[in-house]
From TrEMBL:
<dbReference type="GO" id="GO:0030246">
    <property type="term" value="F:carbohydrate binding"/>
</dbReference>
<dbReference type="Pfam" id="PF21365">
    <property type="entry name" value="Glyco_hydro_31_3rd"/>
</dbReference>
<feature type="domain" description="Glycoside hydrolase family 31 TIM barrel">
    <location>
        <begin position="304"/>
        <end position="618"/>
    </location>
</feature>
<dbReference type="InterPro" id="IPR013780">
    <property type="entry name" value="Glyco_hydro_b"/>
</dbReference>
<dbReference type="InterPro" id="IPR048395">
    <property type="entry name" value="Glyco_hydro_31_C"/>
</dbReference>
<feature type="domain" description="Glycoside hydrolase family 31 N-terminal">
    <location>
        <begin position="63"/>
        <end position="261"/>
    </location>
</feature>
<dbReference type="InterPro" id="IPR025887">
    <property type="entry name" value="Glyco_hydro_31_N_dom"/>
</dbReference>
<comment type="similarity">
    <text>Belongs to the glycosyl hydrolase 31 family.</text>
</comment>
<dbReference type="GO" id="GO:0005975">
    <property type="term" value="P:carbohydrate metabolic process"/>
</dbReference>
<keyword id="KW-0378">Hydrolase</keyword>
<dbReference type="InterPro" id="IPR000322">
    <property type="entry name" value="Glyco_hydro_31_TIM"/>
</dbReference>
<dbReference type="InterPro" id="IPR050985">
    <property type="entry name" value="Alpha-glycosidase_related"/>
</dbReference>
<keyword id="KW-0326">Glycosidase</keyword>
<dbReference type="GO" id="GO:0061634">
    <property type="term" value="F:alpha-D-xyloside xylohydrolase"/>
</dbReference>
<feature type="domain" description="Glycosyl hydrolase family 31 C-terminal">
    <location>
        <begin position="627"/>
        <end position="707"/>
    </location>
</feature>
<protein>
    <recommendedName>
        <fullName>alpha-D-xyloside xylohydrolase</fullName>
        <ecNumber>3.2.1.177</ecNumber>
    </recommendedName>
</protein>
<dbReference type="Pfam" id="PF13802">
    <property type="entry name" value="Gal_mutarotas_2"/>
</dbReference>
Length: 712
């Protein structure tokens, strides 16, 4: 959100106050679970303090500095001491021996090799240094406490000086409270590239973009995101043998919608702001982008390793197609007859009767013997996944139960919050109500008892932001993004509890901070077009730059009918992703319905993934251990090669395999090979690339693509 009018002025209707002078400090010690942590508190005035009269009628920002782990410093900016009722992300704390040094001239806080320095009784600024080198900072007037008076009757305001704090004194003597925001702006070193913010489908490098952290169901071709993560990675690329890259991460610990301006409002800064009286963020420093992402991943809960069978090929009924047990078994047998390895069969929405989602009951007209059918699928060596969501239609048998017991989100008038989008009279499960969680889990347990192995946890983004009452009394703006966390956790926890071997996996669309604990996530509703392959991959690489380890996408695209060319090219890409699923909307996604070559392509690449499985699973284990993605943006693996910084149509699959999906019908593809010795996995040719790298322009048939193994 932009509050400025150019570099010096503020926009009309905004009252912007900034710390001008830090004037005193204190140290607060907190003991939790037997461990003590130190917080440095710095008070800063909104005007320079020359005389005692400057201490009257002026606001303050209270700046608290603390550390949850070495090389990570948390910053809380607070104007008024108000409770916002937003849910808090679960952050993993570790032992930190923080160093605090203060004098009459400065305040310094140090954690590991990261430190922040604030001058006292001078022009306000904050400088963050890692191993002695400045990596970012907050300049004078970058921080701000902002009153938004656009909703007030401004013509009635007596005088600009009558605006104090967040109140406007009107001519009739009454006081109106304005909307209030807190803002920070962190500087960017020249040449710094910014990545992350979750699964965003626009340009991969985020410089020059405005990004709102709010989960929405907008498809992969829009600027909306199913997985909005208030984290960015800033990387100043290094040059091999000459200089190391400087990098750090910024995690804004706010569950309510947060707005980022990435070198837009001020061209050499990243601005971020949120509604309310406080703003908390963390600077995460490291020696490499991998190091930084790993520290952020661990801070927000770490990743979970999915069962090995999940890395095989998943086949779906697709969405609005007609299907019954006969259809399902025909598809499963058809894959086996064509010697195409299959791991999971997925039943999408219409395993339940239309208009009744969700009632968690099989449509007996199409599936008269679900328990028997599941056993028959298991006997063929496959796992079974079924679609679920957290919404309940008014026509569902469960609506009355949920309404009477208070299991749904309500409106302020006490009625159930409903609309007709998706299903008639849709209600939304309130996962802040522990009884509602147990009820929901009980409905799913019945399916597990029938033999279902896992769930596709769809939706979770269209959650009310306003006029929404939760059982825990939480702020609906904060609960909106956090809903995905509560939803996926409830399902994942049930699976861990009920499975004898503790194997748990969901196939989730929505996510927020910490969602990497509940794998796997897929990329949402894409189109059956080549440009949508590129959109999808950009979104995945951005998610992988945001602390997530595993990711998938709908092979062939979700919307529309896929052409044979799209299907075959996307099959190559999909089976060289961490998780692989055929899924569509109006069209079955079995290969023989496209052409015979599609069968050959599917067979070849599903078997290739099987052959690579020892490598893939070993790399998956290491990725979880280190907190880094299995599918890696090129800059992550080659951070000292500036040519890799903007590459968004290729990736590293683990540490050794480079994949460049073909995104043209003719088979033309441009890509880049970094320095090293490489062997093409399919055609076996070898290349030795010098320290300047090698740009490639090639043409491939449908049975091959650029997939290279780094052999030294």
């Amino acid at each position: 959100m932009k509050f400025s009018d150019g570099y010096w002025l503020g926009k009309d209707n905004y009252i912007i106050n900034s710390p001008i002078e830090a004037y005193d400090t204190s140290v607060r010690t907190v003991e939790e679970s037997g461990q003590k942590s130190k917080t440095l508190v710095v008070n800063s005035s909104y005007q320079q303090l020359k005389t005692r009269s400057d201490m009257l009628d002026v606001g303050n920002s209270t700046i608290s500095l603390f550390s949850p782990a070495p090389d990570i410093i948390g910053v809380e900016l607070k104007h008024f001491d108000q409770d916002d009722r937003n849910p808090l992300y679960d952050l993993v704390q570790s032992t930190v021996n923080a160093e605090i040094n203060t004098s009459d001239q400065f305040a310094n806080y140090k954690s590991g090799d990261l430190e922040v320095n604030i001058p006292l009784h001078d022009k306000f600024r904050m400088d963050f240094k890692y191993k002695g080198n400045r990596i970012t900072g907050s300049e004078l007037k970058a921080q701000a406490s902002i009153d938004d008076l656009s909703g007030q009757e401004l013509g009635q305001v007596m005088h600009p000086n009558t605006v104090v704090g967040a109140q406007a004194l009107l001519r009739d003597g009454s006081v109106r409270w304005a909307d209030h925001f807190m803002r920070e702006q962190l500087s960017l070193l020249p040449g710094t590239k910014v990545y992350g913010f979750g699964e965003t489908f626009g340009p991969f490098e985020k410089n020059g973009q405005s990004i709102d952290i709010i989960n929405r169901d907008g498809g992969t071709g829009s600027n909306q995101s199913y997985k909005s993560i208030p984290f960015y990675l800033a990387v100043q690329p290094g040059v091999k043998g000459q200089k190391k890259n400087k990098c750090y991460g910024v995690f804004v610990n706010e569950s309510q919608p947060t707005s980022f301006e990435v070198a837009t409002e001020v061209v050499d800064r990243v601005s971020f702001s949120t509604r309310g009286e406080s703003l908390e963020y963390y600077i995460i420093a490291g020696d490499s982008p991998k190091d930084v992402i790993g520290k952020y991943n661990k801070l927000t809960g770490g990743s979970t390793l999915p069962p090995e069978w999940t890395f095989g090929l998943w086949l779906s009924t697709s969405f609005t197609t007609d299907y019954s047990e006969k259809t399902v078994m025909k598809f499963i047998d058809g894959m086996a007859e064509r010697d195409i390895p299959l791991s999971v069969f997925h039943f999408d929405c219409f395993w339940m009767k239309g208009f009744e989602w969700s009632n968690f009951e099989w449509d007996k007209a199409q599936f008269p013997d679900p328990s028997g059918m599941i056993k028959r699928i298991h006997d063929k060596g496959l796992k079974v996944c079924v679609w679920i969501n957290p919404y309940v239609s008014q026509k569902s048998r469960l609506f009355k139960i949920g309404k009477e017991n208070g299991y749904f989100i309500k409106k302020s008038d006490g009625n159930v919050w409903q609309w007709d989008l998706w299903q008639p009279g849709n209600a939304v499960i309130d996962f802040t109500n522990l009884e509602a969680v147990s009820w929901y889990q009980g409905l799913l347990k019945h399916l597990l008892d029938m033999g279902v192995d896992c769930f596709k946890t769809d939706f979770g983004e269209r959650i009310p932001l306003h006029d929404a009452i939760y059982s825990n009394g939480g702020n609906p703006e904060g609960e909106h993004n956090f809903y995905a966390h509560r939803y996926n956790k409830a399902v994942f926890d049930l699976l861990k509890q009920e499975k004898d071997n503790g194997e748990a996996v969901v196939f989730a669309r929505s996510a927020t901070v910490g969602g990497q604990q509940y794998p796997v996530h897929w990329g949402g509703d894409n189109l059956s077009q080549f440009h949508s392959m590129a959109d999808t991959l950009r979104g995945g690489l951005s998610l992988m730059s945001s602390g997530f380890t595993f990711w998938s996408h709908d092979i062939g695209g979700f919307e529309e009918n896929a052409s044979a060319a799209i299907y075959k090219r996307w099959t190559q890409f999909g089976l060289l992703s961490s998780h692989s699923r055929y899924h569509g909307n109006i069209q079955y996604r079995v290969p023989w319905l496209f052409d015979e070559e599609a069968v050959e392509v599917t067979r070849k690449f599903s078997k290739l993934k099987q052959e690579l499985m020892p490598y893939i699973y070993s790399e998956a284990k290491e990725s979880v251990k280190e907190g880094i993605p299995l599918m890696r943006p090129m800059y992550l693996e080659f951070s000292d090669d500036a040519n890799c910084s903007g590459l968004d149509r290729q990736y590293m699959f683990g540490s050794k395999i480079l994949v460049a999906p073909v995104m043209t019908e003719e088979g033309e593809v441009d890509y880049y090979l970094p320095e090293g010795k490489w062997r093409h996995i399919i055609d076996k040719r070898e290349m030795t690339v010098g320290n300047h790298g090698q740009w490639m322009a090639e043409t491939y048939d449908f049975l091959s693509l650029p997939v290279w193994e780094k052999i030294q």
